């Protein structure tokens, strides 16, 4: 190949070292031809490598860079050189860009100093075709070829390529002007701001009537430099040029979002829908309006609105959430049933959402079970138990009981009781109890049903339920055993809300549960219903005492009195106003539960509240029982 020919073409190909690492034939390849090339790695980063392959990408006009999908090319070693072949496509290509790498260790590469090795396409007269230079820059700015190598383009080289293309082919300026200016912004040479702005104005002035796309691109360039007034001015020009443009629709969409008056919001949405029925902003707005109907408690309007929407604008999971909440709150139950039926109908034909990863059919089945759960809930809340039970059977999965929801298990068994199918639901319900996926209400319902069966009684039912939970309780006790500590329990003497003296010396030989709390502590208050249950469980046990130590209150004592007067908790509340007891018991945050064993030593400490009342009651109760047993 004649390298002088290409060097005189000014920057069309990457610069070569004196020993010419890369050459190809024919020297002026045309579309559709096979090009043979030779790569000599001696003076490159791959000089010591023995397993080398090529990786190339085709390039052309900016709007054709979608063709730039990298591919590998095999090489044959002949002495110190590697030989390969590439076929130039028959159309829409202005050249090929190649890098070389170790085929075993792909991170070892020769990128020709970041410029790649280039095979430009020529026409029948041997002249370099349009885009042969600018297309190289487009590989750097419009494709991921360089980024897959964790490399960054040289902004100076990119600018040079674009400038050369426009100089050689002035008629291509409309295709490259914005890319060149964007590259100059990234280049950030001193004084680039005025140069780029002058370039924008010069280009727009050269166009008798700039297109919406050109105005939008110019606005983006100004915005990238922080000149928002000029960017906004150009966007206003866009709206004037095309009152139906996406920008106009976006402004209308934002106005709807920002409208606080619900009646006006609905009217604005309907106006946008009528004027732009295919607007890309409608799907997201539809979700917003759906939520608006629900939050404004316009449930009948919500049903009408949802039924008018195409499936592509409908989110089944959103409708599911709304229907379930309505069912849980026992309001608008017929409408809740309609909502969930609509959600199920949409899900059947819904294509895979872009935000969903993994197998869509599997995910679809999971969502279908969620929707069926809500459907059963809406039916049973209306007293339609005979209709609800077959729905439960459709989605309840005995093989996946480990991932089941305790509340759903409860509703399933209660529905089975009401439809005389308790015996049929018993195996799954027993399994739920055995692995801790049963609510207290479910366990009570199962025990009561069992007690009514022929030959049984309340006593045998209690034994039956205890047997079901035996393994679970043993596992839980084993886990809790690991959490037991053994620390001195500092003596204390406090005054409670009734003015009584509460002294640790009065509780020798007993298990004492200390709950450190304050009225301003949300998690403390949230845990009180569970703590009331735990206290009630031991209310007839003289060897267990619960003390709810108010500490870190930081306000008037009356606040504590007022709180306790307003709530039905029969707690003993000692006052630790100086935090001396809290500090002595190493309370780092509240709520903190501390359990003192009969031996007068701290055996258990936990901070915070997990939000699960049953778990809290069970764990605390088992700790108390273990300490009573001398564990």
TrEMBL record:
It holds the Pfam family AhpC-TSA. InterPro entries: AhpC/TSA, Thioredoxin-like_sf, Thioredoxin_domain, Thioredoxin_ResA/DsbE_sf, TPR-like_helical_dom_sf. One of its GO terms (biological process) is response to stress. Coiled coil: none annotated. It comes from the Bacteria. CDD domains: TlpA_like_family (cd02966). The keyword Endoplasmic reticulum does not apply. Keywords: Signal. Residues 1-20 form the signal peptide. GO terms for molecular function: antioxidant activity; oxidoreductase activity. SUPFAM superfamilies: Thioredoxin-like, TPR-like. Residues 483-629 form the Thioredoxin domain. This is Alkyl hydroperoxide reductase. It comes from Spirosoma pollinicola.
